[in-house]
Amino acid sequence: MKKRALSGLLKLDGPLLSILSLLIAIVISGVIMAVCGYNPIEAFGAILAGSFGSQRAIVQTLTQATPLIFTGLAFAFAKKASLINLGAEGQLYMGALASAAVGMLDLGLPMALHLPLAVAAGMAAGGLYAGLVGVLKVKFGSNEVIATVMLNSIATYLVDYLLNGPMLAENSSVAQTERVLETAQLPRIFQQYQLTVAILLAVAACILVKLFMDRTALGYEIRAVGLNPDAAETAGISKAKVTIVALCISGCIAGLAGASHVLGVDRRLINGFSNDYGFSGISVAALAADSPVGVIFAGIVFGALRAGTMELNRTTSIPVEFVNVIQAMVVILVAAPLLVKELKRLNPAGWSRKTKKEVA
């Protein structure tokens, strides 16, 4: 019976696995809260109220979800080519830097030209920064995980230097730039809130990536390399080209996260603005099972957790770190069945013997 239950768990995939993982993560987090002497019902009530309890809460959830959708999509896209892009944080920073620089330039352009130019600059900066990793991997055999992590540090330190020096706003005691011009600002959906049309761009990006992967030749090549690189090369698909292109597109998407924030939310580049949006995108992609459409819903879930954290902190004495526990548990629970499947594939005989002993 245990064996049948385990087999059933291993067969779970996609949305079912994600939903089950989220529910189990919430239950485990609640148990941990109770053991630590806190009321889990009070905690989850505060999180729910802070994320969906009012118009302001919903808007805050969508505002937090916007960059998470972009960074989650960036990670998921690279994963389709069997690439681990841990550099969304750095690409986000470079995108924000480029968009802020172009947005502050008085080019005499109307919004119809200046805004797309500033957004494109952010995409290009993020794409080139990620593309550098692709070149290093193809030409020199560098590991993309190590390269992207190192480039994250370079990007954040570069922005830190510029915001405390050449790009520091006049008479400002905070490390930030001047405001971007009105012609480069993303329109806000509600003037009293920070939610902008970037949420619509994020949703559109997910849908476009889905169509791109399913209906274009390049999308097919990316999926083919991700599934079986050797077979893809035998079929005439260039693994080197796919690696560079996939990382460039992934970086462009991450750059959009930075662009949308500086052009819409803060309307200037502020040091430390990210709040780990790049790294949280990994959790979003994990919950979405790397599905472009699933990223939309996963981004909203994690956006709700972030928005709810503010209410949790304001109305209760429960540590907000418990929200991080939920996020971590989601990733662990999503990854665990996949890890077991991989171990079973690599050593089917050994796994079979171990399972028989446990059942006995």
Automatic annotation (TrEMBL):
InterPro entries referenced in this protein's UniProt entry, alphabetically: ABC_transp_permease
| One annotated Gene Ontology cellular component of this protein | plasma membrane
Q: Which GO terms describe its molecular function?
A: transmembrane transporter activity
* Domain of life, per lineage: Bacteria
Keyword vocabulary terms for this entry: Cell membrane, Membrane, Transmembrane, Transmembrane helix
The residues that cross the membrane are 20-41, 61-78, 90-109, 115-136, 195-213, 244-265, 277-302, 322-340
Q: Which CDD domains match?
A: TM_PBP1_transp_TpRbsC_like
Q: Where in the cell is it found?
A: Cell membrane
Location (main, coarse)? membrane
Query: How does the record classify its membrane topology?
Result: Multi-pass membrane protein
Q: What is this protein called?
A: ABC transporter permease
